[in-house]
Task: inverse folding
């Protein structure tokens, strides 16, 4: 069956030159899907989408942009759907960030899927770093990290939040075995074919979903790498520090219990299939 060469793409300086030969059976298939979970983001979703669309126009591969509206009570969905080339998905009510990302990833058609926060705390141009890391390492997931090079952080969180984040990451490593320094940065790239099953198995619907999805990808035999990215704290964050920190810690405990009681067993059955897909 014939294939079509989509693009030869060069990573901009200062990153090394990278060549992507993208094959597809149909020119309608995007190379990259960008998934943006959004809840009551009317005040900034328009500006963020304009920045994303500017990035998309500057690249030589096909991209689809998906906004997942999480039961917003403002005009988030109307603003997003009013922009050309934006695909809007609607959750059945307010289900949470984890549910929104899962919804978007499972609906995505791209070979690769980028998840980014609606406020673009990590500038969309940092996608190039994740693409380069995925190609060079043959990873299944690339995690944007604030912890590897803290000098790249332009606007910091409060010291209380930063130290709380470090403590939570220590708990993540204890309960999941992941050797990731920052699981909570809202900027991650996934290889759709090899991580789709992990998203199907995902149970956590709110802010604590990141450790679970990375844990499941590793459990399925996937490779996860971490790269430093530029990042700026947005004071309009939707994360309620005390309440959501407690809930995320509880999610870690439940993740461990599910793992010990065999509730993720379908992952073992899928491991061979995913390895065949990778090969």
Result:
């Amino acid at each position: 069956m014939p294939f079509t060469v989509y693009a030869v793409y060069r990573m901009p300086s200062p990153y090394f030159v990278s060549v992507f030969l993208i094959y597809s059976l149909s020119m309608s298939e995007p190379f990259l899907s960008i998934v943006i979970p959004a809840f009551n983001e009317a005040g900034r979703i328009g500006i963020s989408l304009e920045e994303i669309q500017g990035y998309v126009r500057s690249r030589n591969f096909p991209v689809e942009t998906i906004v997942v509206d999480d039961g917003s009570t403002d005009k988030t969905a109307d603003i997003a759907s009013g922009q050309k080339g934006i695909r809007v998905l609607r959750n059945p009510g307010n289900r949470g960030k984890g549910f929104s990302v899962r919804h978007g990833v499972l609906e995505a058609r791209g070979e690769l899927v980028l998840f980014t926060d609606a406020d673009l705390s990590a500038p969309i141009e940092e996608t190039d770093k994740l693409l380069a890391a995925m190609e060079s390492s043959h990873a299944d997931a690339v995690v944007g990290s604030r912890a590897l090079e803290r000098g790249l952080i332009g606007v910091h969180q409060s010291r209380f939040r930063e130290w709380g984040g470090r403590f939570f990451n220590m708990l993540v490593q204890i309960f999941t075995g992941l050797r990731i320094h920052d699981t909570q940065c809202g900027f991650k790239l996934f290889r759709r074919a090899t991580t789709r099953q992990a998203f199907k198995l995902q149970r956590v619907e709110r802010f604590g979903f990141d450790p679970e999805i990375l844990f499941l990808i590793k459990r399925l035999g996937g490779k996860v790498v971490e790269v430093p990215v530029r990042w700026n704290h947005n004071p309009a964050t939707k994360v309620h520090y005390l309440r959501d920190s407690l809930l995320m810690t509880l999610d870690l405990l439940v993740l461990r219990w599910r793992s010990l009681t065999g509730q993720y067993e379908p992952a073992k059955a899928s491991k061979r299939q995913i390895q065949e897909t990778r090969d």
